[in-house]
């Protein structure tokens, strides 16, 4: 069955005097070739099975960079909670557990749950604000490759400061160590954020294949689809992120057994590989040069389009923005010959690109509520695990089940589930996938709320503060519930990420114009920063006695917001052809017609 992306590539062979004629030439001529394809007709597109292409070597080099960067990031941030929250274990100077390692919890600064939560939330906020820096610099001045290379050095400097904050002399002065930790978070955030905005689009740019037919060894003729390949690229890109985040597995044991300076040093040494891989692979990469700043022109387009629709009545304004002719005042073709305003220096295609960018950015605005659920596995669920029976398992080790589950499930989705849906003609479009992610994330929070309720009931201390329940000798006195029971939310959130998070990266790349891909990716990632700011406002209720209520509230929020999201944007799935066609040729005059046909052909 033909996908939306590929139908968008159809180009009429000869002009027709009417819209109906254009549409017929576009979509009904079964012998018409797809523009830019290698001998693929519309009939082939509609009847042959679609498969992905092989990923280029340069894409795997970008994957290796992301792997090393994510190992370093998660290998440090995943153990921040214990490092900040818990005090030094009995007899320790490094944070390592010296006695009762079976149920002991590593710690260092002893600042408590709320300070730990606040600092970790700031870290998430900051690292997802700084992609704007990398996105704008890459699109306008440096290009993606140079931006990644320069900011990898910045990130490395931040990790060196982090190691210094965790040495025994620093830990002996907790306030000074906390200050160094804050400084390292700022420096690492600048580097990691700038890298983050550019790695995602750079990996997809490595694939330059075209739509073509291929005969399999079985004799079946299939269509090799770039859109299916891009979807596969981002699945494996996300797998690399989660392979890297498994570095936190070793970090948990290193912190417990050898102390925090060792746990932070190992990821820093691994990050040293990043600049070398980038320099080594330069001759293999497909590099996109900077295109110059178009942000000002983008704002002008929006301003001109919005001016006639603006009203004191907000409902009237919203209706005007959603009208089909909203962008017309910004198009040169809207004005009679010789009457175009001088400030309009662009063509119709650029206006369509801006419109597509705004559509994508509007979709991302719902994601802060999704990331609220994800943020719970980043720290609060680690605190939940600290109040359960560990039996030798570090409490902050369990969160690694999230990336492990993603690593296991991505091949299943890429090779089994998604191909099965395509064979059955089921169009599991981006908006539907994101909605499924919201639903599963809410289910994860419901699981966590129920689990926390039972921890309260079985806790020996009966004060609803499980992580601080101690025996007379100072060792942990946990709930009898085994720590592995908390694995459910981590696995469910992992499934939700495959639906929502991966699709958001894919959506940001496919919907963003070539001149703004890094900026749009930065906007997508900025939603995590907004989520952190929203989460920060909930600091007062981020305490263990209120965890059950907090998790349950997030479950309801995810389901409610997800449903509103689907109702709001389900029409974008019908316009997938038109949205993906923008910027791929001279189609500015046919966008509305393509959208009409897409709407009729949507499943």
Structure description:
This protein is mainly α and 603 residues long. It contains 27 helices and five strands. The strands form two sheets. The protein has a three-stranded mixed beta sheet. Strand 2 and strand 3 form a beta hairpin. Pfam families: PTR2 (PF00854).
Structural class: mainly alpha
How many β-strand runs? 5
Q: What CATH architecture of the largest domain do you see?
A: Up-down Bundle
Enumerate the spans where pLDDT stays under 50 for 5 or more consecutive residues. 1-28, 582-603
Mean pLDDT: 79
- SS strand fraction: under 5%
Query: Widest sheet: strand order?
Result: 1-3-2
CATH class of the largest domain: Mainly Alpha
Question: CATH-wise, what's the superfamily of the largest domain?
Answer: MFS general substrate transporter like domains
Estimated radius of gyration: 26 Å
- Global morphology: globular
What gap, in angstroms, lies between the N and C termini?
11 Å
Query: Any idea of the CATH topology of the largest domain?
Result: Growth Hormone, Chain: A
Helix content: 55-70%
* Count, helices: 27
Largest sheet: 3 strands, mixed
Overall domain count: 2
Layout of secondary structure:
Layout: H1 4-7, H2 19-28, H3 42-47, E1 49-51, H4 57-77, H5 80-85, H6 112-127, H7 131-142, H8 144-165, H9 168-171, H10 174-205, E2 212-215, E3 221-224, H11 226-245, H12 247-258, H13 260-271, H14 273-280, H15 295-306, H16 314-322, H17 348-364, H18 367-377, H19 380-386, E4 388-389, H20 401-423, H21 430-458, E5 479-482, H22 487-499, H23 501-511, H24 517-536, H25 547-574, H26 576-581, H27 591-601
Parallel strand pairs: 1-3, 4-5
Antiparallel strand pairs: 2-3
Helix pairs in contact: 4-10, 4-11, 4-12, 4-13, 4-14, 6-10, 6-24, 7-8, 7-10, 7-24, 8-10, 8-13, 8-14, 10-24, 11-20, 11-23, 12-13, 17-23, 17-24, 18-21, 18-24, 18-25, 20-22, 21-22, 21-23, 21-25, 23-24
